[in-house]
Structures
1.
Amino acid sequence: MDWTTIESDPGVFTELIQEMGVKGVQVEELYALDEDLLKSMAPVYGLIFLFKWRSGDPPSAPVETDANANGVFFASQVITNACATQAILSILMNCPPSVTLGAELANMKEFTAEFDADLKGLAISNSETIRKAHNSFARPEPIMEPEREAKKDDDVFHFIAYMPVNGVLYELDGLKKGPISHGACTDDDWMGKACPVIQSRIEKYASSEIRFNLMALIKSKRDALEERAQTLEGRKQRCLSALGGGGGGGGGEGMDVDDPDGPLPVGDDALNAEVARIEVEIARSRGEVEAELERRGRWRDENIRRKHNYIPFIFNFLKVLAEKKKLEPLIEKARGKGA
């Protein structure tokens, strides 16, 4: 029933989410607390923040002990090393219905709806699907050391989440008694309010700590780009229809009311120019889809290498070197360089 520590990496987190059965989302790493950058990645469902945990730090804002009353899914962290998965789940379980959770998480969310935070945490700890997905990133170790209690001087890092739920910006930390409220917000301004909260937390460490990590849970870029290309294809066809005498120009006749680019232009010249613009944007979107697929491929390869057990190969390689009497000279050479 042990849970391993996992690397703070967008490729790792994205595959972990997929293995839990969730579709249509991914994780992106952020290198700056920039509201405009976050808005360019919209929709952003939540932020995952990694920081050095310090015992005894008080909550940064009021803690709401009755999360259920506010419609927040909040689970206590009852498992050691599970804070990464816990932070991810804190966002996923509070996402809008447009996010497809998959059977495991959807059933858990429904089953635990009236549970308190501790029972929700126990439900997570007892989920074989979640534990298996989390532990799939365990690193093989040649020597298993017995577990020990963390010492005062040990560096202990912790993941928490920030997201809006029912008009309130929440900090979701499984080690607290409940969700931490940072005040009212909207789906449009919550990121602007979350950035100074995170910045303030970073500044508390002054110059004693520089190791932080921030990631965003967003809609799948590939899905967003493909949807955009489809929208553009529809607009292009309406332009071509208008050029052919089928209407659709000017006042919006034949226009899709959900078209983010607005009404079609008036006149053949304007329509031809619009078709040319659309074709350029479609080509760019398809190029970005290909680039995203290549990046996903790199993530997949990196995760395969993370999970692969190289230890038997290394042991056998050293054995062969020893049998051919090449190991000792290499050791002596390495010692000489070290001196």
Note: The radius of gyration is 25 Å.
2.
Amino acid sequence: MRLKIRHETTYDFDAPVHYGLQRLRLTPKTTQGQEIIDWEMSLVGAKIELEYEDQNHNHITLVSVDEGVEEVIVSCEGEVDTADYAGVIGRHAGHLPLWAFSSQTRQTRPGKAMKDLLAQFKTTEARDVAMLHDLSSAIREAVGYTKGTTYATTSAEEAMEAGHGVCQDHAHIFAGLARALDVPTRYVSGYLMMNDRVDQEASHAWAEAHVDGLGWVGFDISNGISPDERYVRVATGRDYREAAPITGRTQGAKDRSLEVKLSVEQQQQ
């Protein structure tokens, strides 16, 4: 399947910016199940300073914000060919050893609520795909998908206690519980083509667990499936902070508003 993606993020600041740097994880790479046909990035109010690959094998674009601007626009557009491998990415690659994805972070560390759910899996000996799908289902039943109730800084335990959240929270909870079961797990940010519409409200998030004999396997907890040809992987990390599309800081101004325009649609080949 060929997917065309358009992603525009507009930052509106409350005063002229004195200085700012942003780290962009907005360039997908060719990997199992996806081939990048073309991808372009354009900037208004900022310029590219450096491009490199981070410890998670993500393509990073480091940009500086132009002094005195009150608006920055980051636009990406491209086409990606995708295929359905039932979520299997395969062998581990990147600069971090596999064991690094077994350690918890502030956003994934289980507390009482997560440990209560984990209890039903502690006696399960298998650490296979079937068990991980069962774990995904249990999380989805315990934490309903509700927009506008959590934030980028919300931890997995906080979302678990609240009983609601979004795809980011589901991925964090899954990562925290799978790691507690000695399964290396990572967070994934990317795009999902919805079947009922082209325009999306935001990018998507899911998780990948490392399974013996298969390597990395994806689990979209919010939708209860493994990623198929409708998904495009962009960045991975131990949690949202390491895979977020845009992170950075500015001096002299604060974000007043943030607007995201995103479309994902199938193209005829």
Note: DSSP finds five helices and 16 strands in the chain.
